[in-house]
From TrEMBL, chains A, B:
It holds the Pfam family Arg_repressor_C. It is found in: Cytoplasm. One of its GO terms (molecular function) is DNA-binding transcription factor activity. One of its GO terms (cellular component) is cytoplasm. GO terms for biological process: L-arginine biosynthetic process; protein complex oligomerization; regulation of arginine biosynthetic process. The keyword Transcription applies. Residues 1-67 form the Arginine repressor DNA-binding domain. Regulates arginine biosynthesis genes. The keyword Protease does not apply. This is Arginine repressor. Residues 80-145 form the Arginine repressor C-terminal domain. Pathway: Amino-acid biosynthesis; L-arginine biosynthesis [regulation]. Keywords: Amino-acid biosynthesis, Arginine biosynthesis, Cytoplasm, DNA-binding, Repressor, Transcription, Transcription regulation. It comes from Alkalibacterium gilvum.
Length: 149, 149
DNA sequence: GGATAAAGTGTATAAATATACTGAAGAATT
DNA sequence: AATTCTTCAGTATATTTATACACTTTATCC
């Protein structure tokens, strides 16, 4: 079992089962004949950005990344690496320039990412304008977007 | 300092500062002359449902609840307790019945909650119809919604 | 008010998680 | 092919987080 396969399985398991702690993952994998240690799971959690969240019912449960979907994240990363030109903020606005023709796709992904800082998002051919909730949010957004490159 | 005030402050801090571990909270509060121990913070994290999430840059950071805003959650809980009548799923649909006149408010809150399982949501006077992404999601949604009662 | 219950917190510690260190296995380089 | 580099994962352990227990404070009831 390759690491990548395991990652996919973990993402599947975390959605289907209630995983309260990393050892639960170890056990679930063990049931499937896959041997890993808690240490490996801890590293997997980090890479997949899974979080142990307090649940409504008082317990804990591992969850998918809070804010941004893994797939969206992957796509954003790819597109940013491919088509990103520049980024800047002014007041509550974040302006992203891309290679011609890529802004619309980028805007769609940014929408899909559902950043809590974001208020709205419009795009032209090579420009995405993100309107955030305030100045601080704009800066935070800029950082987040840059981090994909 | 009352627990509730502290909770508000924690929610503020977690948005403004990078909090990597619970001790960071203890320190931040200490700076403001508020004395608490890590144990209390752990309990606060649980009640506020804050999560320690792996960050893009490789570190960790405490975050607000992943999927659902604290206020929204509170309101949903209140409204569900007040106005909920019944819930059922069929295929990828979840149908919620409420006391007359409450469905619109409930739908608005469900929208605000931005469940990842949800595709869309419409409402009448006493009925909310949630369209989810697939059958499994519908069941998961049902559970989540019931859990507010 | 006094009694009783409920909520909140610290201390100490158990439980869970992250990581330094190490070695194995494969890929890349010469 | 030998050497070096990189990735991966286990072991052992450090770090972090959760909680049992005890005590204090606050609310509730009579």
């Amino acid at each position: 079992m390759k690491k990548n396969e395991r990652h996919h399985l973990l993402r599947k398991l975390v959605q289907e089962d209630v995983i309260k702690k990393q050892e639960d993952f170890v056990d679930k994998l063990h049931e499937r004949g896959i041997e890993v240690t808690q240490a490996t799971i801890s590293r997997d959690m980090k890479e997949l950005q899974l979080v142990k969240a307090p649940a409504q019912n008082g317990g804990y449960r591992y969850n998918l990344p809070p804010e941004i979907d893994y797939d969206v994240s992957q796509k954003l990363s790819r597109l940013m690496k491919d088509a990103f030109v520049s980024i800047d903020t002014q007041r509550e606005f974040v302006l992203i320039r891309t290679l011609p023709g890529n802004a619309f796709a980028l805007a769609a992904l940014i929408e899909a990412a559902r950043y809590k800082e974001m208020f709205g998002c419009i795009s032209g051919d090579d420009t995405v304008l993100v309107i955030s909730r305030d100045e601080k949010s704009a800066q935070r957004l800029q950082k987040k977007i840059i981090s994909f490159i």
